[in-house]
Specification:
- This protein is an alpha+beta fold and 166 residues long.
Length: 166
């Protein structure tokens, strides 16, 4: 049997004594689409934040490609995290930046590309979501649905192996 891409083994997490995750066992394999469904406040976002290493379990372990996140060095965690992208519930767009700047932000922060290369990549991602005409617009000028799509474009701009949608 293949190693799961993402695996939770008996993961528990509590905040201020309030349990949010209790003994979660989960295996997600390469190419698999997985949906976590639950009521508001049920721990879905907490689970996703464990995958990208923003939170550590109080008990149990989270592994990516068989590597336990808790045992990785900071540098190895950072390299592993680059394979993932995270789309926030509220799109998390910066109001002071244009759509183009918002989508291109991960490329500016992590890449070694020229301004023109970044512009072309951003325009391609905006084409994919049907919003090339908002490149120079600001988030305040967009509808809620358009903001979600811009958030998606930013989530895929680095061409991650895995996209986590919160």
């Amino acid at each position: 049997m293949t190693t799961p891409l993402i695996q939770f083994k008996s993961v528990s997490k509590a905040f201020k004594g309030h349990p949010v995750l209790r003994g979660i066992d989960l295996a997600i394999y390469q190419g698999q689409i997985t949906t976590i469904i639950g009521k508001s406040g049920g721990g879905k976002s907490v689970l996703l934040k464990h995958i990208i290493g923003l939170l550590n379990p109080d008990e149990g372990s989270v592994t990516i490609d068989g590597q336990c996140l808790a045992k990785l060095s900071r540098g190895d965690r950072k390299r592993l995290r680059r394979r993932f992208s995270y789309m926030f519930q509220d799109s998390a767009l910066f109001d002071s930046m244009t759509v183009g700047e918002n989508v291109g932000l991960p490329l500016v922060k992590h890449g070694r590309k020229s301004d023109e290369e970044i512009r072309e990549i951003v325009l391609e991602k905006l084409r994919l979501i049907g919003l090339t005409d908002v490149y120079d617009s600001y988030p305040s000028q967009l509808s809620g649905g358009m903001k979600k799509r811009v958030g998606l474009a930013r989530a895929i701009v680095m061409e991650p192996q895995v996209v986590l949608y919160d």
